[in-house]
Amino acid sequence: MLPQFRIGAAVRVTRNIRNDGTYPGVARGELLVPRGSVGYVRDVGTFLQDQIIYTVFFLDQDRMVGCREEELMDAASHWVETRFECRDRVTPTRRLAVQGEVVAEPGAVGEILRVVRDAPTGPAYQVRFPGHTLQVPEHALAALAAEVPAVTDEDVERFYHENPERFRRDETRTVRHLLITINDDFPENTRQRAWARAEKLTGKLAADPRGFAAAAERHSECPSALHGGLVGRVPRGQLHEELDAALFEMAAGEVRGPVETAMGLHVLLCETIHPPDVAPLDDELRERIRGALQEQRARQVQRDRARIGQGGESHEPSGVG
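The line above is the sequence of peptidylprolyl isomerase; the predicted structure tokens follow.
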């Protein structure tokens, strides 16, 4: 990763920089440098979670402050003052839709990934909402209400342990497959010859499943051949009906085939059977729960505001295409 700015470069900070507890003599959370301020790079520092850290001297504030690359822009670049900046948390002021489908309601919690200052209709933002990243005009966003309580790790863990049924997973199976297509335009892929090849491979691999990945790389006509035929961990109902029926009758380590589908002839290896369980509380699930709880709280604040401001009537804004 190469730094975007060199030592001595004039840069502009694009978001308010507050003390995170590492700046001496200043209270935690106090504003150090307001967004829009111009400074000069004094040092290109270490990597922090794959990000370059710059030491920047801001003349007006007479302060040397560490800034992430995403927080800086070339000082000579066009600057438009905006209400929000990268990493700010926002909520839509109206329904946001893509091709007529509503994908984010007022109260949904989004994080700004990028500021689009030169959008034709004024400042806009690339905002990550759960399941979607959208470009949203500034007038369609509001700051996440300060009164929305932050979701803590304890909140996440409590929700997880109190709602195990929400995180139950049905039986799944890790499967590899080998595909031979049927195409009478090619002599080696006529129905008769394709069946003969598939049956021969099935017999050989049933006797020694350890060679399945190598055989898939060599013989399979599916892109998964690049990964030894690995399809992955699948629940019942995800594959073609014929494959699904065969796979969920197989024992772990069993090879079965040929199984014919519209794609051609398949040889299957049921690599592992994963019994029903509860999904572990890993980092990905933690963030999903945190996002859902934060959105739930933001929606409640939005509803409370609507009741107070409109005599108990909630307002549903029109969509933004």
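Note on the example: Residues 308-321 have pLDDT under 50 and may be disordered. DSSP finds five helices and 20 strands in the chain.
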